[in-house]
User: Which sequence fits this backbone?
């Protein structure tokens, strides 16, 4: 195995490998399809491979990931982010993990439990 640390770069590399493998699978299926009688499961497999490719390509393009957080680039996005009715405090980002940490810290400061 490689000794490269799990940095952002190596994570992108994993996405790239995933993209290549998904595209390979998709093209294998596409070129083996019988146009006269495509089997339903082949279409499903093709869709599945294309979805994997799309997800990996999105991850590559996102760079920092959806959260924009350096610590949790692949973490979940806070569902309250961008919510007009229940806005997040000023300065909070999209990262759910960081926002939860802020919520816990705020609750402890106020003596909530
Ligand atoms: Zn975070």
Assistant:
């Amino acid at each position: 195995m490689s000794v490269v640390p799990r940095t952002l770069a190596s994570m992108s590399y994993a996405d790239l490998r995933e993209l290549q493998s998904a595209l390979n699978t998709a093209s294998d299926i596409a070129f083996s399809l019988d146009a006269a009688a495509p089997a339903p499961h082949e279409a499903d497999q093709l869709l599945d491979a294309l979805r994997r490719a799309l997800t990996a390509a999105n991850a590559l393009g996102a760079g920092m990931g959806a959260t924009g957080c350096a610590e949790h680039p692949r973490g979940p996005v806070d569902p309250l982010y961008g919510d007009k009715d229940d806005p997040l405090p000023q300065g909070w980002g999209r990262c759910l993990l960081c926002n939860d940490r802020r919520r816990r810290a705020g609750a402890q400061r106020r003596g909530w439990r």
